[in-house]
Amino acid sequence: MSIQTTTAASTAQPQISAGRLTHLQRLEAEAIHIMREAVSECERPAMLYSIGKDSSVLLHLAKKAFYPSKPPFPLVHVDTTWKFQEMYRMRDKVAAEYELIFHRNPECVKLGINPFDHGSALHTDMWKTEGLKQAIDLYRFDLCFGGARRDEEKSRAKERVFSIRSPQHQWDPKRQRPELWSIYNGRRSQGETLRVFPISNWTELDIWQYILLEQIELVPLYFAAPRPVVDRDGVLIMVDDDRMRERLHPGEEPMIKNVRFRTLGCYPLSGAIESEATTLLDIVQEMLLATTSERQGRIIDHDGAGSMEKKKQEGYF
Amino acid sequence: MAHASDLIASDIEAYLISHQYKSLLRFITCGSVDDGKSTLIGRLLYESHLVFEDHLAALEADSAKVGTQGGDLDFALLLDGLTAEREQGITIDVAYRFFSTEKRKFIVADTPGHEQYTRNMVTGASTADVAIILVDARKGILTQTRRHSYLVSLLGIKRVVVAINKMDLVEYSQATFNSIADDYRQFAKQIALDDITFIPMSALKGDNVVEPTAHMDWYHGPTLMGYLETVVVDDDTASLPFRMPVQWVNRPNLDFRGFAGRIVGGVVRPGDTIRVLPAGTTSRVARIVTMDGDLDEAVAGQSVTITLEDEIDVSRGDLICAGESPAEVADQFEAHVVWMHEDEMLPGRPYLLKIGTRTVGATLAHPKYRIDVNTLDHLAATTLALNEIGVCNLSTDRPIPFDPYTENRETGAFVIIDKLTQNTVGAGMLHFALRRSHNIHWQEVRVDKAARIAQANHRPGVVWFTGLSGSGKSTIANIVESKLHAAGIKTYLLDGDNVRHGLNRDLGFTDADRVENIRRIAEVSRLMVDAGLVVLVSFISPFRAERQLARDRVESDEFVEVFVDTPLDVAEQRDPKGLYAKARAGQLRNFTGIESPYEAPEDPELRIDTTITTPEDAADRVVAALRLQGIVP
Questions:
Q1: Residue A102's beta-bridge partner residues?
Q2: Contacts of B61 (CB under 8 A, 6+ apart)
Q3: A287 vs B: CB within 8 A
Q4: What does the alpha-carbon distance between residue A163 and residue A143 come to, in Å, rounded to a whole number?
């Protein structure tokens, strides 16, 4: 693991002496350990693949954990039909190399659930929360890896690495198991499933630094480029396809701005930021100088205090 | 994240290279709500410029709404996660926080100081390198200070900071600080803590948290942040003998067989001699494989895949050790046990024990004593309840490799899992193997079970009748025994009431006693099966776990579970011994079906519905089942 650069100075990397691992080496080793424990203690594991940077890191770690074997589980993409086009291209590329299952909630397809007419809360609940539960039930997965991190949001700070869910997929904060040392209890009663978060202890900076070190491929949307956006209540929304063009408010005119995304979800729910960061180094630099947290661009957290906790209890990842 | 470094803007690459080699420190903060613990962590984040503007805006709004600091920022609100807790004003679980400075990345386990939450503190301490113990300068060393310090020491944290907080409220008095530090040193001797650093501070005012203060010129030690950034925790684990619990056998094709695991002690290099425990086989390391290429050396903390020179049998749960200094192997131990579940520990009940990557069956004996975490007194105890800590002997159903916890936290720590709910119900630290574990060898016997079976015209077995009181178990069992006896089968009937008059007369009807009752019967049955008998056991035996224990004591084809299924209202109506009436009148406590639960068998060999089957027909069905299983001809 080292920064790939062209400068001469970087070739003289400090040698890691016995017992002196860097923080990233320790985090990587911990994530690999967690993945191997999880796979060993369940029957039908899967990895939730959301195409974002955290998923990309998770997939990379899975390759390392089981090398020279391939990761012994499929990836699952719970689709909402409202992801950015570039995300779908990335997904198809990954699907060419790994077993990738994608699931769309058929009820949402039938009802045409979308963030414009039904609001972000219902859209997320129906497509993502319900969709994920359906996929887990349909394929009878007993364990699903996710890329959630404890630094993302207050209620996540108390999440276990191995998080037990009831047969109805509910997260009960009172029923979570104590987790000591590096001993993880992956056992389940009838109908229970596990969500496992190997990168729980990573921060946003760790993720970016790791992407940089390991040269992990990302969706180009993370990098600044001229893109058509509209300013809606102070949030820059990208006009990603015709469905958005049909729904422009009176007087709204898409404008081309140099923007990028700090987090990716459904395009009408992901705010862009104006940026000139076109390389990984630029992005890390911009992030280090940033003064707002990454989830700010994500609309679901603003539904009110405790909203993430409520979503989790209902089964949102 | 507003890291204060000019390099970020001027030379991001140089900055990142300098940060690539940061180390990681995990610490735990202990103290009560009143000691200002959350305020301290909030202050550390805030003063390290690690609070984002949107978080800060939320903090300002929250402080105005529910804050306890008048108009000022209430840093504690940065930390309290769950809505319910926020309203109660106490944290009730372990929360992990992250921040980094120019020198280190930190993971903070924030755990509550509230009385009943030993469980959470033990959890947080299990992964910490350093503990910060907060003391209110106005109050000095309190009961809870002792409790936290004891737990820190029990969990093997070697380095402790005693942060004497709220110095602003004692006029920054050096005499107060010294007197508290002296008191603490006296106490610390009892619990074998010796690497202690005392820091006078005010988390509220910011004195000695990140910046040295002008208010206490008599203090020349480090600030808290100064300490955290420089304390050497360098993995004491790397100097230990090599240990790697095998997590997963990697077999992508016939030519590759690697053993994947995280190294939890020492260093390994290709060519090293290793020993695989518990089998004891030896080989040498061929390669250390990673996706980034083979390594010349790997150290404690790294996750790797090892290949060996010889084709020896290695599977998940095995411990690969340095050949010249392997771990011990035993099946009986003394250990500290911390109970973590509302349902108390049941001595004798079969639990699962997970140590490293190995899960085995285990039973705990009655505690030798329980520890009062406030006074450190040893108290007599028959069990352990939630948040209680005791010293127990325990035995595993197979020999397991281990090191004493004080030598290696990773190979000496275990958790206890309930077999039915699969919940983690306890945790513990192994002290040593009991001598008898090494010294008990089975007495070689010339006349063995096979010889006894050969002499009889049938095989031995256990017919286990379970059901509510009054369900008809004994009635049916008696008829079965008469029929078998008539056919020349050697039998014995163990009946709940009869056994309670003799062998088990010291036992009552609490859950713990019921477990012990069945454990003894299971053992007696096993001996009788060994003697070649068909044993008929007629016991209410309300718990699945104990019936499973009895089943596990004999061969799988030697056990027939008969569920005498009579609905509660029917049994109560029959009430042959008048017990239901007594129980309903409150004269008989813990009666099964009334005050104590009955867990019906999920998959018995035979289920008899007594509302539609006569005792005679039921007995015929039992004999038929025995025939089907090949026990009787």
A1: A77
A2: none
A3: yes
A4: 10
Chain A CB contacts of B13 below 8 Å = 3, 5, 7, 10, 281
Cβ–Cβ contacts within 10 Å for residue A150, how many?
Answer: 25
DSSP code per residue over B102-124: SSEEEEEEE----TT-HHHHHHH
In which element (H, E) is residue A267 found?
none
Which helix or strand (DSSP H or E) is residue A104 part of?
strand A100-104
- Residue B113 and residue B270: Cα distance in Å, rounded? 47
Chain B: closest CA distance from residue A11 (Å): 11
Determine whether B395 is an active site residue: no
Instruction: Encode pLDDT of B402-433 as tens digits.
Output: 999 999 999 999 999 998 899 999 999 999 99
CA distance B181 to B350: 46
Compute the distance between CA of residue B212 and CA of residue B202 in angstroms, rounded to an integer.
11
ipTM higher than the 0.85 cut = yes
Q: Which residue has the tokens 């198991």?
A: A177
Domains of chain B, first to last = 6-230 (3.40.50.300), 237-322 (2.40.30.10), 329-436 (2.40.30.10), 456-628 (3.40.50.300)
Name the token pair of B98. 């992250």
The whole-angstrom distance between residue B123's C-alpha and the CA centroid of its chain comes to 10
Q: What is the DSSP letter of B265?
A: B
Whether B357 sits inside 8 A of A37 (CB atoms) is yes
Q: Which of A209-223, B12-26, B220-234, B264-278 has the lowest mean pLDDT?
A: B12-26
DSSP annotation of A272 = B
Question: In the predicted model, what is the mean pLDDT of chain A?
Answer: 85
Shortest Cα distance from A244 to chain B (angstroms)?
28
The first and second tokens of residue A91, run together, are 């997904």
Amino acid in position A221:
L
Measured between alpha carbons, how far is B596 from B571 in angstroms, rounded to an integer? 15
Q: What is residue A82's three-state secondary structure?
A: coil
Residue in A89, A78, A62 with CA at minimum distance from that of residue A136: A78
Quick one: which H or E segment has residue B368? none
Would you say residue A53 has pLDDT above 50? yes
| pLDDT at A94 (0 to 100) | 96
The fold of A21-206+307-314 is Rossmann fold (3.40.50)
Size of interface A-B (CB pairs under 8 A): 230
B458 or B114: whose pLDDT is higher?
B458
For the CA atoms of B246, B250, B251, B253, the dihedral, rounded to the nearest 10 degrees, stands at -150
- Please state, in angstroms and rounded to a whole number, the distance separating the CA atoms of residues B525 and B387: 36
A167 interfaces chain B, CB cutoff of 8 Å: no
Catalytic position from the list B100, B149, B541, B556:
B541
Q: Per-residue pLDDT averaged across B224-253, rounded?
A: 90
Residue B293 neighbours by CB under 8 Å, 6+ apart: none
Q: Is A205 on the interface with B (CB under 8 A)?
A: yes
